[in-house]
Amino acid sequence: MDVKKLTDRLSVGPQITPADVADLKSRGFRSIVVNRPDGEGGDQPAFSEIEVAAREQGLEARHIPVETGKVSDADVKAFATALEELPGPIYAHCRSGMRSATLWALSQAGHRPMADILARGKTAGFDLNGVARRIANGGRVPTDTGDAKYDVVIVGGGAAGIAVAASLKSRRSGLSIAIVEPAEVHYYQPGWTMVGAGIFTADETAKTMGALIPKGITWIKGAVAAFEPEKNAVVLEGCRVVTYDRLVVCPGLKLDWNAVEGLSETLGRNGVTSNYRYDLAPYTWELVQEMRGGTAVFTQPPMPIKCAGAPQKAMYLSADHWNSKGRLKDIDIHFANAGGVLFGVKDYVPALMEYVKKYDATLDFFHNLVAVDGSARKATFKVTKEGEEPTMREMAFDMLHVCPPQTAPDFIRVSPLADDAAGWVDVDQHTLRHKSFDNVWSLGDVMNAPNAKTAAAARKQAPTVAENIVADIKGGSAVAAYDGYGSCPLTVERGKIVLAEFGYGGALLPTFPKWILDGKKPTRLAWMLKAQMLPPIYWQGMLKGREWMAAPGLAPQDAPTERA
Question: What range(s) does the Rhodanese domain occupy (predicted)?
Fold first, then answer.
């Protein structure tokens, strides 16, 4: 019997026979809900037969018949009542289990986040995206038909979203474009490493969203609940529906603080900090200044993460400060990395290792942070080395800088746009067009191209997407190709940076000739670029559609875009 668990209280599955009831009892079920009308199939037992068999086994049974594709609001209410009144665990079934799963999903609207409802259905083998709009409407059949319509809808008002909006507007000023974004503040996240080192202030990295969205582009201040790509629609929380001719998806990624046991409860105190949050980066600098001796631990989770160099940047800048104050000899520094290498592009490792040695830092590879006890100042790591059984290691700390695990946002992972592997938006890595839906593109941290997730990558991706959308509007094929470019200015000390620039496969893609700036060596010119030039390039260039040093490459016209 194919029983699919949705919650501890409810499982669903296909049609059962009276002979199956004893098996259900042996599995611990105490109630049965039948959602299939009598006589729907020739091999289907009547509800009365199931009810008799259930009574003989001491189980309760209830009949809530629902025709395929005709789940009424009254049906949902009856199912919700059954969930409350019947003893659990409950097994609900129809022909395949889909109607029962749908009834459950609609009954949970308003009680569980939509992403959780869709995710539980997906795990059980049921695609519930078809009722997403109804879930957003509290489980009731939507009656609102006044949907907004745009030529291009962009999901996400971060670096990627505003940049691609500006690039599109500069190419086709007549396009009606909307950005869907719930946040009121836009952050220059690459600056948070500098905040954590006392170089920038937090205020310098934040501006109001309204001040940055390009003129002529509509800001829809709301959160996406689900996608209906077959209907060219985006469903917002509260069941507002926005439709489009073309969709761009770039909401960033999710920092999963709760994936590390005890971490959320101790962030911002007990010596636990992170430059991955606007409000915590100043605490990093506070801890660095106060530390006179002890153990400082810097962590890096499994890939992918945004700006893969950021965890070690925090270590280098902290160590540089302690060195300048004569405290380094009294501080034991550990870099606990879930991976097995210091940096993914080997050409930059020699220069970085010189600083690891200079700061006498211990590299703890294959160490994945799984728990933090803030009050006891202890961090627990799962150590997984190839060919060995995993072990647990506890490490005491006086300062702990954490890079959290990172995933695609929940509403992306459960959507039809996601890949089957990790839930990222599934795109062709060169054209950034979706592999299954021709009028959908994605860029930034949320898509599954194998590039580094950095703002510099988004700066290069935005013109590529804009060019290809305009080409599509004209009826042509993709004209621009993204080469995987990403940049990671590794701040190895105050005043010097190793400027890592690379593309797909780790290919080096330097912006400047070697005689001007050798990215494989720490230079003051790279520091000036990071500290003085990149912020105005971001605010005044990238977010305004000025594509300085970001011209897209040409797509090969004899190579068709990959399609699923």
Answer: 61-111
